[in-house]
Amino acid sequence: MQYRPDTPERHYKDSIRLENNRRSDEKLLASVEIDISSPESDFMKMASGTDSTILNRGKRYFSIYCSPCHRDDAGGNIGPNLTDDFWLNGRSIKDMAITIYKGVPDHGMPGWLHSLNKGQTASLIGYIRSLKGSNPLHPKAPQGTNE
């Protein structure tokens, strides 16, 4: 059967699908909000920790999802430098999680909500936080605010 987007039935089914996707996304983000609000949550412990196993996992995820735009050393390319004190979307764990999950469509960053689970995201955030002040070669000029 051929897909016909111009039928009322198709419009209805598409709107239901989009609404279900939106609700699913909201549930996932609400779950993350709960984890972020508790300093004792596993998410916060991983994201703020220094355990080498977690950081190595985060480095692996960084190389897959982030380095194409931020470079392997996080010095910035298409995306901003993640090693300096200037951030476009906030540098707190909460800000970083929301940026990773929702993306920044206006700047070309995709959201990874359906690609990364909470453990992967927490280890990725921990790794990115560990890069602060690492002084990569030829870093991208500072962008954002120093807050």
Describe the structure.
This protein is mainly alpha-helical and 147 residues long. Helix 3 crosses helix 5 (118-130). The protein is globular, with a radius of gyration of 18 Å. It contains 5 helices and no strands.
What's this, in brief?
The chain has helices at residues 8-37, 42-48, 52-70, 93-102, 118-130. With 147 residues, it is an all-alpha fold. It starts with 7 loop residues before the first helix and ends in a 17-residue tail after the last helix.
Number of strands: 0
Shape: globular
Number of helix segments? 5
**Structure classification:** mainly alpha
**Would you identify the regions where 5 or more consecutive residues have pLDDT less than 50?**
none
Mean pLDDT: 91
Amino- and carboxy-terminal Cα gap:
55 Å
Helix content: 40-55%
- Major sheet: none
H-E order: HHHHH
Strand content: under 5%
Give the C-alpha Rg: 18 Å
